[in-house]
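During the reporting period the student researcher (J.K.) took over the structure-prediction task from the postdoctoral fellow and processed the backlog of single-chain submissions. One of the processed entries is reproduced below for the supervisory committee.
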Amino acid sequence: MTGLYREQVYAPLWARGTLLAAFTMTTGLYIAQTLTGTMIGENPAPNTVLLTLSALFGGIYLIFHRLRIELDYRGVKLSYGLMTRTIPYLDIERVELSNIGIMEYGGLGYKQNHRGDVAYSVRKGEAVKLVTRSKGPVLFTPQEPRRVVSLINEMGSFSTL
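J.K. obtained the following structure tokens:
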């Protein structure tokens, strides 16, 4: 069956831009040094270091630049980088609107605060909070949190019948 709701929320431009700039710079230096056969700068980095850094920045960008959210008839599926979590509707005790702040969760990504709440966030602001029976609260940041809350409430009520 197809999903009821699918969304990809991308990290802010400053975060993606920083990684892409680092990737472009290290790749460009590697290519320039390889093609010319000379080292660039007063204290140049060896080609192996440039290639390693380039692969590292590119890999981090490809893996961690977006949060994928999917609602289907079984539950809520959250994917951030290599981490995927599916929360069945039967495990959701309640759904509510919340906020994700930088001070409480320490920035973007997969974070856990001092209370044990887990957040999948690529931006700050309004979020959806799922209070689960098994592993505690889970927060995530869709583009339209109010719509997602109503969809989860609708699907959750059908799954308990």
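The committee noted the following: The longest helix spans residues 13-36.
J.K. will present the remaining backlog at the next meeting.
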